[in-house]
Amino acid sequence: MHLVMVGSSTPSHVYPSLALIAELVARGHRVSYAVGDRIASVVAPTGASVIAHPTLLPDTDGAWPEEIGAAMRIFLDDQIAVLPVLLDAVTDADAVLYDIGGFAGRVAAHRWGVPAIQLSPTYVAWEGYEEDMAEFTATLKTSESGASYFAALRSWLDENGMAIAGDDFLGRPEACVVLIPRVIQPNEERVSASYSFAGPCIDASRTSGWTPGEDDDRPLVYVSFGTSYTNLPDLYARIVAELGETYRLVLATGKLDPAEFPGLEAARNQPQLDILAHADAFITHAGMGSAVESLWFGVPTVSIPQAVDQFTNAAQLEAIGAGVQLGERSLPDAVLAALACAPRAREVRDLVRAGGGTNKAADAVERLVA
């Protein structure tokens, strides 16, 4: 079977499904993966045939627009440009898999007359979602950038013979495999049974063999704010000043120069999976990838959300007892509160690992395309 995967060209959208793609290849499926050229090398080790294309999405050092509508428009314009590349490169697809931002995948599947399965690395819509989000959506659609976005989306769908409403195209996939555990899904009891929850697909190829040295027996606190929201010099300085003596800090500094943190284990990128396997606490922006990985390893979190879905994720982590939000706490108090969540974090870890993973996700894909 020839499966075509259409990704969004940012690490947080690519990493969550890499192990699934590799498993589908291992099961004998031919997989073609359309993704931005600058991240193609991340996808290649899965064994998929990479369809590399230019991307309009900002790289990890770039800045996203502050207006939500303008940021959404970048994703849309990127996918509008991807569609002709995809249609030229593929002539024999049996089914399409696509990231939540890989809109060209759903459109291409319609053009080809084949099934389309969304792979969601974040939470999905629940029954009543539109009503719950009505005020936000109305504000977005009446903003200049939001109105422009939805007009462009409608025009693109019309050009490709898709009568589906724009809101349904964005939020109601025909089929979906959800790559997060149910425990972190908001309003889980109201999510349709049509969504297949597989849970995290942890990619073993992202491990490096890192282990903490034996010369420091202080609790290990890992600090990372993902790939996009790391230009936080004051916050990093505060973390080091308030926690550096009591805890062993491992810092992923992103856009900040690690040389600014002498004497500490600091690098722009860290082997996150290896570190979480040893960490006692995780100071995080609560991006969904990091949130899910904290649950997989049973590491309690101190969440300091910066944007988009991070506030919802942080609230969910706190609600299930797997961490705390910094809020008005001091950093030392927040870390102590997180450490007190360790028993519950380990309970959730066991639930998450028992709930599925890569094989369950691959089974779901095969069932949905059969």
Automatic annotation (TrEMBL):
GO molecular function: UDP-glycosyltransferase activity
Origin superkingdom: Bacteria
UniProt GO BP: antibiotic biosynthetic process
InterPro entries, per database record: Glycosyltransferase_28 (IPR050426), UDP_glucos_trans (IPR002213)
Protein's name in the database: Glycosyl transferase
Origin species: Solirubrobacter ginsenosidimutans
